[in-house]
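Preliminary data (for renewal application), zinc ion complex.
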Amino acid sequence: MPTILAIESSCDETSAAVCTDGKMLSNVIASQKIHEQYGGVVPELASRAHMQNIVPVVDVAIKNAGITTAAIDAIAFTQSPGLIGALLVGGQFAKSLALSLNKPLIAVHHMQAHVIANLIDERKPSFPFLCLTVSGGHTQIVLCESPLKMRVIGQTIDDAAGEAFDKTAKMLGLPYPGGPLVDKYAKEGNPNSFKFPEPQIAGLDFSFSGLKTSILYFLNNAGASNVYKEEFTATEEQKNNFIKNNLSDICASVQSRIISILLNKLTKASTQTGIKEICIAGGVSANSGLRNSILKMGEEKGWNVYIPIFEYCTDNAAMIAMTAYYKYLANDFVDISVSSTARAEW
Ligand code: KG4
Ligand code: ZN
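Predicted structure:
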């Protein structure tokens, strides 16, 4: 019955969670609002905010779990990938705690943890399953054979799906992070209003940079064309009026294209592997259009679809705690001298 305290600090969320025997007792998330005014995450400010948040967040996670530090059997932390300064704050804190409590340390890969988020709820996929992991930094199709045995079978060759949402929002003059706002406006719009191209990428890989460019041209031409044509270039006023009058339809059309890019590759992966246990994970899995479409597709194709609850979709320590639980059972501990790394193979 191991009790694990887990810490997540890879980007702009400071989070701590406690689980006992794989059951989540608490999951506290402090989001950093400071980045909104800069239109993106500022690494130095993220590290500073983690420094401020880490003690109160861990403290509340322990209190909410109804335990004391004496009950903790292991300390887990996100080792990689992420912003190095941000990772170091959580990593160093976890190490200090492990040292002072004399408990073992578990290092967790953030992207594996996003996949494992699907194993927290009572309704879980059976193995093997496919997971579409879509976040601000990653877009991957992962084939998961057991909790600790998984491999990436498709991934983006340029931008991530979350970036496609956030960059679209930025071009539309919406604040960061724009993904949730595109989702909100898309609900009132017609997805067939405007056509954006589907990239022709071989295999199970993704690409979103062409879509980004076509949206840029489309807006610069005030909707007249989404390929570059000098004679169509609209004035700033025409462009802004076009966006104002068509915001919901533009959001719905772009969102619908991002979703079709994701689901076409997921369908291909399911056909190729014969796997019909299908999960999604990562911040973009909070998108209501993607959730509805994957559920509908599941019905059509006979998939069993699993979507983690909202707080386990975006960055959180519960997914780190759950991954650490499986690592604890496998005796997979790390030495206190371990380093955090911005990138890591898996
Ligand atoms: O997994 P996550 O919280 O952090 C990373 O590890 O990147 O994902 C954040 C990303 C951002 O790009 C954000 O805009 C996107 O997830 N996102 C959404 C929605 N909620 C969050 N994108 C579209 N629709 C949403 N509802
Ligand atoms: Zn993430």
